[in-house]
Amino acid sequence: MLKVMPPSESSDWTLVVPVKTLVAAKTRLAEAAGPHRAALAVAIACDTVEAALGCPRVGRVVAVTGDPVAAEALAGAGAHVVADPEAGLNAALRHGAREAVRLAPAGPVGALQADLPALRPAELALVLAAAAEFDQAFLPDAAEVGTTFYGVRPGVDFTPGFGGESRERHLRLGAKELCLAGVDSVRRDVDTPGDLRAALALGVGPRTRAVARRIGESPGRER
Ligand SMILES: Nc1nc2c(ncn2[C@@H]2O[C@H](COP(=O)(O)OP(=O)(O)OP(=O)(O)O)[C@@H](O)[C@H]2O)c(=O)[nH]1
Ligand SMILES: C=C(OP(=O)(O)O)C(=O)O
């Protein structure tokens, strides 16, 4: 029998989450995490994916990684995993976005950083609702230097400019900066030990709490 798939709705986002090879991941947490650095990177990415999938505006998460260990864990957290073209972060995101359009041609596409372990689905919903008002939009990170989310309306070119001081780059590229209250968990990226403590204070997902305990950090409150 022919199975007719329902058309994806415009509020049904596909989020692309990039996860680099674990040997190279989270180097700024090397001292704090010691032998648990790769486990911490995987835990943070999987908690991010699980929370994103818990958001009613998200239809699916496409994770882009070339790492087999990360790929298995991310698939276990519910992501649709595609291989990394190994040409850098923005190339990985564009590759994931092509898969997103293949999976849901009528839906909006976003890039979400993989290091948001405190992410709360309801806060992500606010960001996606705001982003849907613009052709191209982004959310700056907690430090207001980088970016945690970049998204486009259906049919608009997906041209992410992540890396380093990407807030300025996204502004120059003409994306609308989202200035929203009540979305701290979507902006709380984790690069340094200080960032990790700030995320733990907000409340992180269960995998990150478990690794935090192993590296001697107080796991803080539950998300
Ligand atoms: N798939 C993919 N993801 C990448 C690549 N480069 C960076 N990322 C991801 O993009 C996000 C930001 O990356 P970085 O800040 O460069 O790296 P990081 O692992 O978070 O931290 P550091 O090693 O401390 O710089 C993280 O989620 C990374 O996993 C890449 O080439 N491919
Ligand atoms: C790559 C970026 O993030 P990070 O702070 O993780 O380097 C970015 O903000 O564009």
- Measured between the Cα atoms of the first and last residue, the distance is 44 Å
Going by helix content, strand content and strand pairing, the class is alpha/beta
Percent strand: 5-15%
Number of domains: 1
The main sheet orders its strands as 3-2-1-4-6-5-7
Which fold name fills CATH's third level, the topology? Spore Coat Polysaccharide Biosynthesis Protein SpsA, Chain A
H-E string:
EHHEHEHEHEEHEHHH
Number of strand elements: 7
Q: Which bin fits the share of residues in helices?
A: 25-40%
Mean pLDDT: 94
The first-level CATH class name: Alpha Beta
Architecture per CATH nomenclature, i.e. the level-2 architecture: Alpha-Beta Complex
Count of individual helical segments: 9
CATH superfamily: Spore Coat Polysaccharide Biosynthesis Protein SpsA, Chain A
List the uncertain runs.
Answer: 1-10
Bound molecule types: guanosine-5'-triphosphate, phosphoenolpyruvate
- Determine Rg (CA atoms, Å): 16 Å
Shape by Cα distribution: globular
Largest sheet geometry: 7 strands, mixed
GO biological process, one term: F420-0 metabolic process
Enzyme class: transferase
Keywords: GTP-binding, Nucleotide-binding, Nucleotidyltransferase, Transferase
EC number: 2.7.7.105
Please explain how this structure is put together:
Guanylyltransferase that catalyzes the activation of phosphoenolpyruvate (PEP) as enolpyruvoyl-2-diphospho-5'-guanosine, via the condensation of PEP with GTP. It is involved in the biosynthesis of coenzyme F420, a hydride carrier cofactor. Its EC number is 2.7.7.105. Phosphoenolpyruvate binds at residues 147, 163, 166. This is Phosphoenolpyruvate guanylyltransferase. With 223 residues, this protein is of the alpha/beta class. It has one domain: Spore Coat Polysaccharide Biosynthesis Protein SpsA, Chain A (Alpha-Beta Complex), CATH 3.90.550.10. It has helices at residues 30-33, 37-53, 68-76, 89-103, 121-131, 166-172, 184-187, 193-202, 206-214; strands at residues 13-18, 58-64, 80-82, 109-112, 136-140, 147-152, 176-177. Helix 2 (37-53) runs antiparallel to helix 9. Residues 18-20, 25-28, 64-65, 84, 88-89, 92, 113-115, 191 line the site of guanosine-5'-triphosphate (GTP). Guanosine-5'-triphosphate (GTP) is lined by residues 18-20, 25-28, 64-65, 84, 88-89, 92, 113-115, 191.
